[in-house]
Amino acid sequence: MNLNRLVLKSMKKNITQYYLYFFALIFSVTLSFSFITMQYNEATQSVLTGVLAVTGFKVATVILYFIITCFVLYANHLFMKRRTQELGLYQLIGMHKSLVVRIIAVENSLLFAGAVSIGIALGFLVSRLFGMILLFIVKETVVVQLTFSGEALKQTLVMFMLLLMIVIVQTAWIIYRSTLLHLFTATKQADEKITSFKISHMLLGIVGVLLIGYGYQKSTVLFSGTQSGDTLFRNMVVILATTIGGTYLVFRYSVSLVMNMLRKHKKGFLTIKDVMAVTPVMHRMKENARSLTIITTLTGLSVGILSLSYISYYSAEVNAKNTSPYPYTLMNDDTIFLQQLEKQNIPYRNDKYHVKLVDVDLTSVIENEDATSTYVLPLSDYQQFAPKKQLASNESMLIGMSNFLQGALTVNEHTPFQLANTTLTITEVNDDFAISQSLVAQSPILVVPDQLFEKLDVPLAHVQQGITLINDTDEPVAERLFATITTGREYYVGENNKRTLKIQSQHQIITQRIGEFGIIIFITAFLGLALLITTGSILYFKQMAEAEDEKTMYTTLRKIGFDTTDMMKGIYLKQLYNFGVPLLIGLLHSFFAVKSGWFFFGTELVAPLLITITVYTVLYILFAGLTIQYYRRVIKQSL
């Protein structure tokens, strides 16, 4: 029998196992080709013009390649493990290991050729959908046409040719380092014997929980107080190490502790649910600990990154209004735009804000703040923004305290301080943004009574004009006028006029922010989806392999009288552990990670985080449902 016939017979024999590996390859090709093709579509190229977008997609492509490579290598490793007895049989009848490697290499080449062909066709169709989603997110109304990209084809072919070479090397490594005895017993050996309860396991399990708790506690104070960049980086490394290390110990020993306590409590009299759920988990404790730790960490990482990106996108409009609190903002005595509005008979309201930069010591009032100067605004000006606000002669307010500032600074209200020989206390701290954040360099503003403001013997730093149209129907004309007048114009602001301020309308800033953050959230969502499907598929493939390994146990249990319903109760508990526990711990990791620094990214935490968590939970439930259905089919076929 020549090599080609041997390969075809081998592939025909393993068709029931090949489809998993084949699906993994098709999915990987489809994902990568569609993502690359979308970048070369004329419709999407209109929004992928900035440095951020171009760089983001290039970095995302590299990350996507890395995810796909890990996914395919794991799938191939799992597939090779299922074929160990076949590989041992080849060697037992006299085949050299080099010939076995050649057989598997030819099989992989045929699989890759078929998967790449199908994946490219599917990716070509899916790329239009992804392009439409991208344009919807950035709120662009452009028709996306199906476009085949030769460059995307070339990149995909090169990528998967390299991946094929890596897979062949992996296969050769597995074959050359395995003995005949190992090949015949690899699928029958448990990675750990069920032993009696040990004090060391209990201690290590408790240490794992404590390490995770320490990482969580450390994350809650990560950005509190002033600290150097080296200290911040060191704290991040400590949080990462303790959380991941604790997660491994929890899966490796805390679960073992709970299982052994359960067995001890039942004094050896295990129910069918225990046999189906507890025993298989304990037999694979080491392997499960490693894989579930990785999956939990990746889940937490992807949920965290996607949540932060969604927070930025969700808060884009609010942040834009903080940068420009009025539809149109002018500086000092600039009246050109106002003259144009009057020529067009467009009514408007002009709120003027007079800002001074004053030397004042607020170190006793604002912790972690060593600035010696503060922007000051008179109460009457602030009342244009908040008419009901009032101050006594010895009172003041701190406005413009963003989420970031509220997270980084602690304000001691009612603590007295001196300003122009007057003793004041801060009676209120809020996030009102009457003054453009760009104008005051993201600093909070001190609001004082008018009499005190007049006593401040310093010149005006800025005069902000906030223009609001009386009629919303005049907005299109006003936008066109403002864009024409302010294009290319910049103001010099700040102390000694060291900073430049680009003039944009509120609508322009909102559009720009939504475009920037829309691209970011699309990239992170795409990579998050790839990572989620990858981790879900790995769990699914792993459980399918375990189901096949345990098929003889199902046959024995059915012969002694247990039906499918009885056995499935144990399967439900087992999948609750395999899918539910990694998801729960991963979501906890992401929650504390996001909570520690979400204020850097936006103004809203709850809604973006809940939406992201819900999406991930639903998709994990779908994978768990598929796994349960596969177990049900295997159990029914076991007799």
Any descriptors?
3 domains; about 65% helix; two-stranded antiparallel ribbon; alpha+beta; elongated; 22 helices; about 650 residues; single chain; 8-stranded mixed beta sheet
Rg: 32 Å
* Total tally of structural domains: 3
Which structural class matches the secondary elements? alpha+beta
Q: Span between N and C termini? A: 36 Å
Spatial ordering of strands, largest sheet: 1-10-2-4-9-5-8-7
Main sheet attributes: strand count, strand direction, barrel closure: 8 strands, mixed
Q: Which geometry do the CA atoms define?
A: elongated
Number of strand segments: 12
Q: What level of helicity do the residues show?
A: 55-70%
- Low-confidence stretches at least 5 residues in length (pLDDT < 50)? none
Put simply, the count of helices is 22
| Percent in strands | 5-15%
Mean pLDDT: 80
Explained architecture:
The chain is an alpha+beta fold and 639 residues long. It has 3 domains: 1-189, no CATH class; 194-324 and 505-639, no CATH class; 326-500, no CATH class. The protein contains 22 helices and 12 strands. The protein has helices at residues 3-13, 15-39, 42-45, 51-82, 84-92, 97-137, 150-177, 180-185, 199-220, 229-266, 272-283, 285-314, 316-323, 336-343, 379-382, 403-408, 450-455, 475-486, 506-549, 551-559, 564-597, 606-637; strands spanning 328-331, 348-359, 366-367, 373-378, 395-399, 410-411, 417-419, 422-429, 445-448, 460-469, 490-493, 499-502. An 8-stranded mixed beta sheet has the order 1-10-2-4-9-5-8-7. Strands 3-6 form a two-stranded antiparallel ribbon. It has a two-stranded antiparallel ribbon with strand order 11-12. The two termini are 36 Å apart. The mean pLDDT is 80. Keywords: Cell membrane, Membrane, Transmembrane, Transmembrane helix, Transport. It is found in: Cell membrane. It is a multi-pass membrane protein.
